Prior knowledge:
alpha/beta, Glucose Oxidase, domain 1, eight-stranded mixed β-sheet, four-stranded parallel β-sheet, 22 helices, 14% strand, globular, carbohydrate metabolism, iron, EC 4.2.1.12, metal ion binding, metal-binding
Amino acid sequence: MTADNRILTITKRIVERSKPTREIYLDRVRSAAGKRVQRSVLGCANLAHGFAVCSPAGKEALAGDTVPNLGIITSYNDMLSAHQPFETYPALIRQAAEEAGGVAQVAGGVPAMCDGVTQGQPGMEMSLFSRDLIAMAAAIGLTHNMFDSTVYLGVCDKIVPGLTIAALTFGHLPAVFIPAGPMTSGLPNDEKGRIRQLYAEGKVGRAELLEAESKSYHGPGTCTFYGTANSNQMLMEIMGFHLPGASFINPGTPLRDALTKEAAKRALAITALGNEFTPAGEMIDERSIVNGVIGLHATGGSTNHTLHLLAMARAAGIKLTWEDISELSDVIPLLARVYPNGLADVNHFHAAGGMGFLISQLLKKGLLHDDVRTVFGHGMEAYAIDVKLGENGTVKREPIPEKSADPKVLAHIETPFQANGGLKMLTGNLGSSVIKISAVKAERHIIEAPAIVFHDQQEIQDAFKAGKLEKDFIAVVRFQGPKANGMPELHKLTPPLGVLQDRGFKVALVTDGRMSGASGKVPAAIHVTPEAVDGGAIAKIRDGDIIRLDAVAGTLEVLVDAAEFAGRELVEADLSANEFGLGRELFASFRRIAGPADQGASVFFN
């Protein structure tokens, strides 16, 4: 099945733009793959160090180069609910590897921080940078060159993008991603949001808020709303890094364990020692990246991926842009309603048909590249399935039903929730930015109001509590970009701005910071670039300037005389308080070399 002509046109443009860097990348991948892992010619001391703790059988197997060795990169820790299930995965993977005639070793661990814990705290200023640090940490684990294939254990916000960058940097090796799955449904997300707004208004106390949050985030697995973590899982499946149906099976279930073992065996089956060699760097191409963007639009996914997908693509020598993402948004209809873009959670999404139904619907209209390589083989048609537990603890895949089990959560391609995906690029005299409008009501897609300028999200909280924001306004929160303070998420702004919007005021947000996968009902132009600290026009805005945010026309403008605006001096801010504390001083070099948001806000790809 060929993709829609509009998708083909955008894909061809990406291919042409990427040719110089992609060709260099593929040459390096093929050169490294040609050398392969030849443990039998390693120095005896090198090899002895590499398998010192293996069993006698494992040592015998690794003494030559005919038995595949599987490297495990894990983000396990037992504080994060999404990553705690990974504690038991290495044992399962080693067992599966032995059954398949191979060996598996934990090659290394990577840090995994939780944006949910660090929201509004100093630690959030290291969150985005942790993505690139994770890629570097994974590289350290794999640099021992002991492995024929890899599996990556990761779920949440920056972890999967960082691991993907690592997998593509080691693109001569096959790479299979193994998820942990979402926690079971707790307090409905809309009820949690309601309690947050009541707390912001002072109508409930901390005890009531903590009770609601604890009922929402209550056990092992990812948070159940459709933020960056679950957008990651969608991406890994639709890009072919997961096995079909793997993304949204709950932790601690027999099917979850069966999928984990199957993934380990598949990773060993696609090494250069077999007949299905699938190096990650050749498997992932421009079509795979476009499929990821398509999945993001079709599900109303996280705004963070307007950063991460760019960086992930660049790791494979592919130059994806915001323009590509925005143009694909006009082609791809919204097929999922999952909080904050609806009332359902990801468990409801999976029960309605999940990734299998979504992929089947996109394929029906040619809105997905089917002619891609995946860790499962060739073509996305194999992913249009329903996954179940088979006999003897194996995985069974069946054809996906023709109808959604819940059309209010997962729509048929002929009756989408809206005609476009809702992630758009905005341009104008303030630079470039992105906006997610899938959860924003149509009457709020255009906001024109006076600016109120802030240099810290706490300033908005204080102004709200003091009753100074009871009016139409656009909040400009600047000096929140990667060079300024690491580009933290400003998710704490959602409750007060949501309250003001519910009171009937026209409100919006303009910022060079992030708002995360939880971007919701308040229109927000985010990732404004150039950022304020880098000479961006956002640093020229003054209180009272009229700003027009137009998500229909795709523009963001300050309505000030052009000559006057050009002549204004850039405002500076004292950022010294962001340079120290909770480890921020260790990331000074990252802040200095961080690239702009429209190139992925990376320390690697500028």
